[in-house]
């Protein structure tokens, strides 16, 4: 391993360590601030999230539909248009996954909004 090949694993481990350390540091600072203000840390409970499963389910369904549609388009429309299956159609996968995943989250928002009214 020479040059950039060695830098990638080193950078990955350093960034992972920094992220974990940063999260722990900020959680500790938050707890210390709560103690200084006199808030009992043991009495704080997590807020219930009744629509969490709905949100994740619709997000994953949307991402799956986007991936499926991208595959179908890549194998039919773009293959016919280009004549050869080149790897230039990769962005369509990411774009459709993001679009349909966002659509799933938007539908989840509409359902939550309708239920709370």
TrEMBL record:
The keyword Metal-binding does not apply. Residues 11-113 form the DUF6249 domain. InterPro entries: DUF6249 (IPR046216). The chain crosses the membrane at residues 6-27, 54-72, 92-111. It comes from the Bacteria. Keywords: Membrane, Transmembrane, Transmembrane helix. The keyword tRNA-binding does not apply. Pfam families: DUF6249 (PF19762). This is DUF6249 domain-containing protein.
């Amino acid at each position: 391993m020479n040059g950039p090949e060695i830098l990638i694993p080193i950078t990955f481990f350093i960034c992972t360590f920094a992220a974990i350390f940063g999260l722990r540091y900020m959680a500790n600072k938050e707890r210390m601030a709560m103690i200084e203000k006199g808030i009992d840390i043991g009495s704080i409970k997590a807020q219930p999230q009744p629509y969490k499963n709905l949100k994740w389910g619709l997000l994953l369904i949307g991402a799956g539909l986007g991936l499926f549609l991208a595959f179908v388009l890549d194998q039919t429309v773009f293959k016919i248009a280009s004549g050869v299956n080149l790897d230039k159609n990769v962005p369509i996968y990411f774009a459709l996954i993001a679009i349909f995943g966002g659509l799933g989250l938007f539908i989840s928002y509409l359902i939550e909004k309708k239920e709370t009214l």
